[in-house]
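Pipeline run #58 for the internal structure catalog. This entry was flagged by the ingest filter as a single-chain record with no existing model, so it goes straight to prediction. Upstream metadata was stripped on purpose; only the residue string is passed forward. Reviewer on rotation: M.T. Logging verbosity set to normal.
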Amino acid sequence: MTLLVGVIVHVATCLAVAAKTQYSVYILLSVAFLLVFGARMAIFRQFDRVDKQSLSHAGIERWERILVASGACTTALLGFASGYAIFVVHDSFAELACISVTMATMVSVVGRNYGSRFAVDLQTFFCCLPMIICSLLAMDFYRGVLSIFLIPFWLTTRAMANGVREFLYENVIARREITIIADRFDTALNNMPHGLVMVDAENRVQVINRKACELLKIGAPERLKDRDLGAVLRYGARHSFMDASQPELILRQLTQVAEGSLSRTLIHFPESLSLEFSASRRADGGAVLIFEDVSSRVKAEQKIMHMVRFGALTGLPNRQYFGQLVQEYLAKHPRKSGPLGFMVLDIDEFKHVNDMRGHVTGDHLLCAIAARIKQASGNAILGRLMGDQFILFFPHAKQPTSLDLEIRRVHASIQGNYEVDELTFLVSLSAGYAILESDAFALDEWSVKADLALFESKSRFKGGISGFEREMDGRYIEQQKLKADLRDAVSAQALHLAFQPMFRADGARIECAEALARWVHPEKGSIPPDVFIRLAEDMGIISDITRFVLFKACSECMTWPEHIAVSVNLSARDLRNADILSVVADALAHSGLDAARLHLEVTESCLIDEPAAVRAILAELRSRGITIAIDDFGTGFSSLSYLDTLPLDIVKIDRSFVRNIVEDARRLKLLRGTVNLARELGLKIVIEGVETEEQLTLLNKHRSADLVQGYVFSPPVPSQNIRLLQEGIGRRTVQRRRNKVA
């Protein structure tokens, strides 16, 4: 349009000058202006049709030269028209008209040719140079001076054009860079894993990315610009998965986070979606809200928390979480009165299920028992203490008697048969419980009271139930004091030994003597071995007693006749690791006793835990020349299998096999069968608990014993009596021989 207006002015000016001056050259100039205009328009249309992206640098320069040349043609015609009017026509109208149009065109160059310095220079040159030359050729001083002023005008126009061009060029570059940055920002914004919402001071959405729209399910980002964030969230609540209360919750917590009262907040939505929000206030009063989907993290934390709080096998609360549940119950019912109940359950002989049927079946049985307890316990809080023990808390009841009946009902309903892995198990559970008022509750104290009642129940009979009584506290305190005294006695080596000899079946000689630990309490007198040995096992100091007995027994054996050996009992704890090997070696080295004179006795209970490790330890001891005996044979489980698999030399048959052999023929047959089996395996037989001459006679008649241990020959005696007993046997033997000779 600027070119069209320009060509009209140019043609009209030339025709007016031609009409005024009658110079036909201006008519020719009018035709020349029209031809140049037509050529330029054709060039522009051709350029518009060119694929600009495919142009090379050389192609761009070629088009620039064409466009600059076509523009220079127009300014050259204007310069010629002005110079011709000055030098030839000498008409003031012609000069004024031509120079005015030319100068106006020069000014327009500043705005139209900002893209090329060469175009500005060339067009200004063709406009000014003809006027300067013709003014000088006219030999008019004043015109000459005036024409010289065109040179600074030329330079000023050139400077203005360059300034405009530089300003526009910088803005084009800046706009291009802003566009690139905006594209990068938009790419980053819409590909970030977090949702982002930017609001102004009036809480209107300024920026929102796709992730935010996806997480909140609130539509496309372009539709939400300048909308109120609260209205957007309420729309999401109506048309997506959010609850109606959650938009206000988000806005309220957004305000708290932005004000600094919260650093971040976690909001849980339906469909297992959890979003964590954080916000920051902007200087203009707006805010930036950032949130992310933390559903996977929340699920993992919940899973970890469940693993921490609940047992993986039974799914029941562990001791710690059980205590927390009880405390939460009491916190919710601070003013409620009435008795509370606390019960501990222990599965009787559950260890033997694992030993006989395997741990997988044992685990299945444990789960079945836990399920039945859960079903029977009603509104009680149930937990698993450890292993085969469970714990129950019974909420407030009206009367202690009703709570007592409820506890006993639960205990009775969980006893009986369980079908597991196509097997039927008759299961009994021993129980101890305590009933106290809620104001006296203390979890650890109640646990101790229930444990005391459980201990009382198990000491009476399996599958029983006992309530806590105050007398149990006294017995418990007494037992704790006894434990402390036993620890002191073991540390001070205040125990002493008695030895029960093992005679040949005919009583002709003592072959061995079993070392038995004895403890005389300074106040209570003699403490039965089964009492303090059990306490020592519970306290974990049984190995210290074993060490003391080994060193003392080996030293005492050195004072006896050389054919008499000494026998020492090992506990299950002694055989849990290979430390017993060094203890035995130290005892032999310290005393100087020959290894062949040391017998070590193990019970079947020692073999239940880690039988392979125990077998390896016994084999090592036997390889050193020590005799290995199995004690109390016949009282445990799977006894016959041990005879073949363990490195044994002696079988000590328990006194229960001997008790009624005189009166009961079947008991005698059982004893003889066991003896014959052991002898077939090359094992030596020791019969324990022989107390009467009738029993001894019957055993000798059937040749059932290699050695006899019992009161029929001797009770346990001090060490020095072993030599005296052997000397007495020797004197009797000599006397019998003399009597025969006489």
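catalog note: The chain has a mean pLDDT of 83.
catalog note: Residues 366 and 387 are 9 Å apart (CA to CA).
status: ready for reviewer M.T.
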